[in-house]
Write a structure and sequence with these properties.
By secondary structure, the protein is mainly alpha-helical. The protein is 52% helix and 0% strand. It is built from 3 helices and no strands. The longest helix is centred in the middle third of the chain and has 14 residues. The termini are far apart.
């Protein structure tokens, strides 16, 4: 079976990722999401690319 690639991270997938992170990183992501009023998925993308609004336009390392 071929996996379907997605350009967005679902809230359930974001919760799984958060659950696997160290507490201090998890807390930082949650705090940042609240600060910028973005969902966790968009916040994760913005940590990878400071100019990204989500995974669709995420280019890790850009804007660093």
């Amino acid at each position: 079976m071929q996996a379907k690639l997605q350009e967005q991270l679902s809230p359930a997938d974001a919760a799984v990722i958060l659950g696997r992170l160290p507490e201090r990183i998890k807390a930082a992501l949650i705090a940042r999401a609240a600060e910028i009023e973005y969902p966790i998925a968009a916040t994760i993308a913005s940590f990878l690319d400071t100019e990204a609004l989500g995974f669709v336009d995420c280019k890790p390392g850009r804007g660093q």
